[in-house]
Amino acid sequence: MSASASRDVADVLSTVIDYQLTRVSPTGFNGVVATQIPPPTTLKTIAGSAALDEVLACLRARRPVFHSEADLQHSFALAVGEVAPEARCRLEVPVRGSDTSEYLDLLCLGSVGRTAIEFKYVTRQWSGTAGTPPEEYALRGHNAPDVARRDFLRDIGRLERFCNREDQNGLALLITNEAALWRPRQRNMPTRDEEFRIHHGRELSGTLLWAGGSFPDNTRELRGAYMLAWRPYTQLEGPSGEFRCLAVFITPNPAQPQPPHEA
Hints:
The protein has 263 residues and is α+β, with helices and mostly antiparallel strands. The protein has five helices and twelve strands. Helix 2 packs across helix 3. The longest helix is centred in the N-terminal third of the chain and has 19 residues, at 3-21. It is globular.
């Protein structure tokens, strides 16, 4: 074979490989079923196919605000279904294999991947009309940003344990109008949740102690490192009308023993 012909063959093979790595629909080309290539474990998608930005855009368009955390969970599952119709979403999935009963907020199942999701919806008092069609909301204030930080870190730790399959990543999602969560500490005096702060630009990793370790039950051991990047969610009228979103993806850790239960 001549050098020119060899180069032509190499170009064809490269094109074929590139084509195989391109995301395709379940029906493939001209109705032929295509073999889907599992995405890299670091790919930040839901169920291997739905981009978070697309899901949030779909969610925001229909639900700029929520009555409760359960309302957020249900609405998010519907948005995933709109963006990725092939994905199956299951709420409150039991996680087997531990000494205590644990439940996952949402499990999204796709043909090339699974995503375990934990939600937090922390609010300041706000009331008004929002959405299409318009809907009345009356949000109560939680008034405990330190507890919200602790619980969000707990979600990340739980997801690190739950993501023990090579095809399952995790997502910890927080939506809030509590500005103290996305802002750095305003006072010079350290607080008991100093190592749990989740403001924009903070990196979380390693061992995190609550009040310097005075409350061992609150200690969090993270295997991953997470750079926190808050994004706008919606802007409503009135005080505390700005809502922002924090999303943290957790990569699979298949080295852990897998639980016997298959969701």
